[in-house]
Amino acid sequence: MENKPLVYFLCTGNSCRSQIADGFLKALGGEKYEVKSAGLEAHGLNPRAVQVMKEVGVDISHNSSDVIDPETLNRAAYVITLCGHADEHCPVIMNPNVIKWHWGFGDPAKASGTEEEIMEQFRAVRDAIKVRIEQFVYKGK
Known about the structure:
- The protein is an alpha/beta fold.
- It has a single domain, classed as Rossmann fold (3-Layer(aba) Sandwich), CATH 3.40.50.
- The protein is 42% helix and 14% strand.
- It is built from five helices and four strands; from the N terminus they run βαβααβαβα.
- The protein has helices at residues 17-29, 47-55, 70-75, 84-89, 115-139, and strands spanning 6-11, 34-39, 78-81, 99-102.
- A four-stranded parallel sheet has the order 2-1-3-4.
- Helix 1 (17-29) crosses helix 5 and helix 2 packs across helix 5 (115-139).
- The protein is globular and about 45 Å long.
């Protein structure tokens, strides 16, 4: 098996944004990258995140919500935080070769309003994350 660079997506609860990023990178760049996601805490997989990903043909329903693993963190090629809280509270990365980036996105789980308004927030964040994943996969940024 070839050794693919590991991309580790981090968020606060590993329920929405990091799961969406995980799903898109596996779908668009899984042949190039090993992909994992985790959170400072494990809040469980958000059903709305599963639903909006299903709408675009990406199944994340079997993903698990996990807490950051220090070993995985230090063997990653890229650590990408998706929220400010995770960026500020990310455990210390001991491996100097890890590339750490912050891609900040609003938390759709905190959206309020009607169900349709909340789902629109989830779709907006999903679409914004997809754009960043496409840039990463196709342009290397």
